[in-house]
């Protein structure tokens, strides 16, 4: 896990779809789980979504709170 990717989770927004414009850290768990089932997009966006899904699935979203400030 790259610490820079954790920072990106609270800055990068979803570029398309139902949650376009929403910060990746704020995406709902069911949406992240859908990507986990159907396949994450390629590239850095897919990596960030996979990381966020892991954090959400394991109840670790609170670790991002200090990065939001």
Q: How are the SSEs ordered, and which strands pair?
A:
Blueprint: H1 3-9, H2 29-38, H3 43-57
Task: Explain this structure.
Helix content is 46%, strand content 0%. The chain is an all-alpha fold. It has one domain (3-60). It is globular, with a radius of gyration of 11 Å.
User: Could you tell me the radius of gyration in angstroms?
Assistant: 11 Å
Beta fraction of the residues?
under 5%
Number of strands: 0
The domain count comes to 1
Structural class: mainly alpha
How many helices?
3
Oligomer: single chain
The coarse silhouette is globular
Ends: how far apart?
21 Å
Please give a handful of descriptors for the protein shown.
0% strand; mainly alpha; 69 residues; 46% helix
The gist of it:
The protein has helices at residues 3-9, 29-38, 43-57. The chain is mainly α. The radius of gyration is 11 Å and the shape is globular.
